[in-house]
Design a protein that fits this description.
Number of domains: 2
Structural class: alpha/beta
Radius of gyration: 19 Å
Bound molecules: pantoate
CATH class of the largest domain: Alpha Beta
Largest sheet: 6 strands, parallel
CATH architecture of the largest domain: 3-Layer(aba) Sandwich
CATH superfamily of the largest domain: HUPs
Length: 281
């Protein structure tokens, strides 16, 4: 495993990769967990070299306290990646290396995908994600980049980004990894107390209940059911629940057999904001 903390040295190292060798890329914000490791393992299985970036991107945080408290565990991250014994290059840049004078995001139009769910609740978030993912893809120039489905809206937006910017990279979405309790793996779980960790499983349980009842229950009734489940669990504060069309991410009012739907939840356990989603049909 090799570590680069500067864009220039990374670019130089990647320029000596043979033309027939495939580069995989896993962008992360660090505090690595099983979900990230599953992406890196998949990438190692499909490529000759895998670049993993670890960079907490300031422009995608709409809340400075959230940015300050975002878990940062670079030593543990590096040792987890080392243990994989694969052809991994870690890219650990500083903010000044990726943003020149102004730490600001480009304004994007992702065809409306950016205005749904996370976009409504985290103003400017996807401009920040688009800006950094575009920068990283232009530096690493991977054949394939891997993103987790836990951030399903982000995955759809990244697919749109590479289409808009005509970036020659294949975007692969990978399934959510869950702990024993069903809670989706997330770097933010590191900030949960033992009690909150237990309570947060309501998110998964509720999504599963929605999935199990999806065929037989109207969307209106499913919305009411979820509201009720969160009322019964006052320690978890529901920010939104949506059943949305997988492609457009628009809220579904009623079901259409030809469409694919997913249920999405964002909820707070104390100060910690958690998101999760599940395919319904
Ligand atoms: O999903 C994340 O960790 C981040 O949004 C990403 C894609 C690394 C961009 O900062």
């Amino acid at each position: 495993m090799v570590i680069h903390s500067q864009k220039e040295t990374l670019v130089q190292a990647l320029s000596s990769v043979a033309k027939n060798e495939k580069i995989g890329f896993v962008p992360t914000m660090g505090a690595l967990h099983g979900g990230h490791i599953s992406l890196v393992k998949k990438a190692l299985g499909e490529n000759d070299i895998v670049v993993v970036s670890i960079f907490v991107n300031p422009t995608q945080f709409n809340n400075t306290a959230d940015l300050a408290k975002y878990p940062r565990t670079p030593e543990e991250d590096i040792s987890l990646l080392k243990n994989l014994n694969g052809a991994v290059i870690v890219f650990l840049p500083e903010v000044s290396d990726l943003y020149d004078d102004s730490v600001s995001a480009k304004k994007y139009n992702f065809g409306g995908l950016e205005n749904e769910m996370e976009g409504k609740h985290r103003k400017g978030h996807f401009d920040g994600v688009g800006t950094i993912v575009s920068k990283l893809l232009r530096i690493v120039k991977p054949n394939t980049a891997y993103f987790g489905e836990k951030d399903f809206q982000q995955l759809q937006i990244v697919k749109k980004l590479v289409a808009i910017e005509k970036l020659p990279v294949k975007i692969v979405g990978c399934p959510i990894l869950r702990g024993k309790s069903g809670l989706a793996m997330s770097s933010r779980n590191k900030r949960l107390s033992a009690k909150q960790f237990k309570e947060a499983t309501i998110i998964y349980k509720t999504l599963k209940e929605v999935r199990d009842k999806f065929r037989s229950t109207s969307i209106t009734d499913l919305n009411a059911l979820v509201a009720e489940r969160f009322l019964q669990n006052p320690n978890l504060n529901l920010e939104y629940f949506e059943i949305a069309n997988e492609e457009t991410l628009k809220t579904a009012k009623r079901k259409n057999k030809a469409s694919k739907y997913r249920a999405f939840i964002a909820a707070f356990a104390g100060e910690v904001r958690l998101i999760d989603n599940m395919p319904l049909n």
